[in-house]
């Protein structure tokens, strides 16, 4: 598939952060900046528009100056609900954006060539959507999604009760872009307090 049209960046922060003890995991500090700020710094130069998927009072993110969009389906339905939110928001508000690139707000070392490499993978592998991998392991929530699939994803979520990203994406041809994990896994995920400590160690190593 040829990549045409603009790209809307989607920052996924709609989860309940149970393993981190609740609250907004993306507002945890790492090296003097929040995880969210670090992901914004990486994502913004790569996209035409940037939105934050987060539930609850959007005022707590006011300083970041981004549209804050809550899940379009109820019940904290997981990252697929966030991806659907991004697809439908782009379709309804930014028709020039034909694609949505999803970034996890708990992956502060995301690569600055994410979208170019995902686009290349889709085109080279005749994919219908793109998925990031590191060390040969898929990162299902970090991907490049055609806005045209919004209606199909809504059906899967609402009518079929599908919740796992890879169950839904298995229906399509995936273009995979793989990153090495040396010197650091770019998709290192901060889920628990001990992961944040590990991320601090990584930051001091690569700084």
Structural class: alpha/beta
Biggest β-sheet: strands ordered side by side in the sheet: 5-4-1-6-8-7-9
In percent, how much strand structure appears in the residues? 15-25%
Task: Give the rounded overall mean pLDDT.
Answer: 93
Report Rg. 16 Å
- N-to-C terminal Cα separation, in Å? 38 Å
**How many distinct beta strands?**
9
**CATH superfamily caption:** Spore Coat Polysaccharide Biosynthesis Protein SpsA, Chain A
How many structurally independent domains? 1
CATH level-1 class: Alpha Beta
Poorly predicted spans? none
CATH topology tier name = Spore Coat Polysaccharide Biosynthesis Protein SpsA, Chain A
What is the helix fraction of residues, given as a range? Answer: 25-40%
The main pleated sheet reads as:
7 strands, mixed
Choose one word for the global shape: globular
Identify the CATH architecture: Alpha-Beta Complex
Q: State the assembly state of the protein chains.
A: single chain
SSE pattern, N- to C-terminal? EEEHEEHEHEEHHEH
Helix segment count? 6
